[in-house]
Amino acid sequence: MKLKVSDLSFGYNGKATLEEISLDVEKGEIVSLVGPNGSGKSTLIKCIDRILKPQEGAVLIDGKEVSNMSSKEFSKMMGYVPQSTQEIFPYTVFDIVLMGRRPHIGWRVTRRDVKIVAKTLKFMGIDNFAERYFDELSGGEKQKIAMARAIVQEPEVLLLDEPTSNLDIRHQLEVMKTVQLFVQRGKISAIMAMHDLNLASRFSDKIVMLKDNKVFEVGDPESVLSPENIERVYGVRADVTKDREGRPYVMPLDPI
Amino acid sequence: MIDDIFGDDFEDDDILKVEETYTRSSWKKTLIVFALFAAVMAFAVAAITIGAASSFGAMEALETVLSKFLPIGEPSPFVQLIVLQLRLPRIIMAIITGVSLGVAGAVMQGVLRNPMVSPYTLGLSSGAACGAAIAIVLGVGIFGSGRYIIIVNAFFFSLFTMALVYGISRIRGTSVETLILAGVAMSYLFSAVISSLKYFSGNEALREVVFWLMGGLYTTKWENVVFLMPIVLAFTLLLVRYSWDMNAMSAGEEVASSLGINVNKVRIICLTLASILTASVIAFTGIIGFIGLVSPHVCRLIIGSDHRYLIPASGLAGALVLLVSDTACRTMIQPTEIPVGIVTSFIGVPFFLYLLVRRKRRWWQ
Fold this sequence. Notes:
heterodimer; A: alpha/beta; Rossmann fold; 2 domains; six-stranded mixed beta sheet; 12 strands; globular; B: about 75% helix
């Protein structure tokens, strides 16, 4: 499975928010979209997930345009994890995750559906609150449940919109490790909009840096996260050192 | 793919507990729905035996109904008239009306993701009321005239209001808040129309409008029941089929659409079905408040928000409440009656406030 975004442009009311975006995502890759607020990260995620309809360009999976797929076909391709989930009405954790099986079930929930949900909860270490109500949980737990719902869809690509932005450091790491495990073991890909450059650096195979609605640079973390790039894109002077695994570590200093 | 992720980290036995808990809770919910159904049936049978006419007993009333199906003698024509022509259609009408209001309320709240929504807030009720008032006071119908003029007017005004409210909300995107505000605004407009009609109407018409607005089942005839029963049954089943989509939609539009649901399409289909369901019933009964709003809430507390269970439960709970209220209406102050709209509010509001104060969870904030 290979995902390709080619010359994609999108605008709200005539004002461009994405211009001629092109990028490739290979199977088994984790790709982070980084860039300042308003640079188009979330919009790009939503265009890929067909939530927004790009005016120009296309998103292709193995050469097939996603806009031509049926909703059911498409929903088996992509799993979406929103920035935060709010449930208006009381649902149990199990019910919420079971919703992710929607593309696969007609009316009746099969034994296999129940098994997949139960296994996913167990795998993520949240099986002990399967019957608890979603709105009683913490932000980190909610985020894990949103990820569980996306993975039981059995997607080829996992799309995450700033998955760590409201979490404490422990939950940030747990969420990122889970994404990594899903991608490696499930042989799928992940595309995530990220604010935290160091988490992006540590967990991504490829970083796409966006500036003013355009792709500024694409590449591995070492080449993209340079002090020069950070200065030009964010307007921030930064030191970039290496962490213990040899990945770039960004220390922002002053806004310019 | 999903099995590759789990690998050999754990055995099937490890998840048995979670599986069992889920299976048990599904059974519990199914059981609650059946229990509600049984309660409605039991109360319906009881209601046959209660009434203002006191010249015959409970057994005689039941035998009269059974005699239609079994060869157990011929009851007197008087008892037949009371039981078969007055009580029975009215009881069935109470069930039908309660079901449709409860179902429509649950569906509207579900697809609009808002716990304050009901046929009232979306302008359906006031639209129907306005249509009925125009027919009663001015004698003007949108489709001809005659004995069904009030019903036809109420029905089409109600649907027209819903379409208008939805149309207004579409102009500014499809924001749910706009939809509700447009509904509330339309309600005020229609109230003004009704008030001026009342102000200028004569005694007889005024009385009739006031009665219609309070809602009641006392005019029920068999032909109404026969007409409404298939509509209510069919629309309820159609709406239950969208349960999964409604479940997914309550997680937000973006998540729902990534689960393969065409959110706008499902929303308009469900709203239309629920509106026709409500409009066709209140056209016959007048405004019966509160059930559409409260029934879904009470059921969510008991059974949770999974629409596969919630929609049937809410319908049955609505039927139960209306049946109890209507039986109270026609028996409390004999031989007169109290309009059922008054009773549902008197029973419903304190109960709802009790739940609101005692609630364990907050799902509106």
